[in-house]
Amino acid sequence: MGEKTEFVPGDKVPNDGVYMEVGEKSFHTEIQNPQQVTLERGDSFPETTNHNRKWKKKTKARVH
User: Fold this and answer.
1) pLDDT at residue 50, as a whole number
2) Using 50, 70 and 90 to split pLDDT, how confident is the model at 4?
3) Statement: residue 64 has pLDDT above 80
4) What is the CA radius of gyration of the chain?
5) Long-range contact pairs involving 38-43 (C-beta distance under 8 Å, separation at least 24)
6) Do the Cβ atoms of 3 and 35 come closer than 8 Å?
7) pLDDT tens-digit profile of 8-53?
8) d(CA 18, CA 7)
């Protein structure tokens, strides 16, 4: 099993870094002006601007 890459509000941050909002199907849904936050390990993810969105580390959130 691999490491979890998408997180919901309230989940604990696994690693320091910049996280951004992605759609449920990130490669199908392109979000205009996604929210970005800088978090440290152990913090909790904040609420997203839409209930269908999740958090993903910015380096892994690229659209293919």
Assistant:
1) 85
2) confident
3) no
4) 11
5) 39/13, 40/13, 40/16, 41/13, 41/14, 41/15, 41/16, 42/12, 42/13, 43/12, 43/13
6) no
7) 999 999 999 999 998 866 555 567 788 999 999 999 999 998 888 9
8) 13
Under DSSP, the state recorded for 45 is P
Retrieve residue 52's tokens. 């269908």
* Residues 6 or more apart in contact with residue 25 via CB below 8 angstroms: none
Residue whose entry in the numeric block shows the structure tokens 């969105």: 53
Whole-angstrom CA distances from 49 to 12, 38, 64 are 18, 16, 23
